[in-house]
Design a protein that fits this description.
alpha+beta, four-stranded mixed beta sheet, about 35% helix, globular
């Protein structure tokens, strides 16, 4: 995935994507080594999944998606919580042409 797939990014997140032959998308949310403790990783994973669920209906199907989350120090212009995560995912999917 990391070698063959294409990548787009925005502050704190990178999206690797690759076309597959399935009628649905497959999603993985992962983190870098330095990303907080287990509580922070699990919260970020839950927010990411919920944000993905809220925009899933609008996405094209047939892609493998890997979202890599990086630690960030007070990012500028990014809303906290679910709203910010949803905006980040919309930005990434728009850049890829999947949205």
């Amino acid at each position: 995935m990391f070698k063959k797939g294409r990548v787009v990014g925005c502050p704190g997140v990178r999206l690797f994507f690759l076309k597959n032959a399935l009628p649905y998308n497959r999603l993985v949310i992962t983190f870098t080594r330095k990303f907080g403790n287990a509580v922070q990783r699990n919260r970020a994973r839950r927010l990411g999944r919920e944000a993905y669920r809220s925009i899933r209906e609008k996405l094209k199907t047939g892609y493998d998606l890997v979202i890599v989350v990086y630690p960030r120090n007070d990012p500028e212009g990014i809303k906290p919580g679910l709203a910010g995560t949803r905006e980040q995912l919309k930005t990434l999917f728009t850049r890829t042409g999947i949205l």
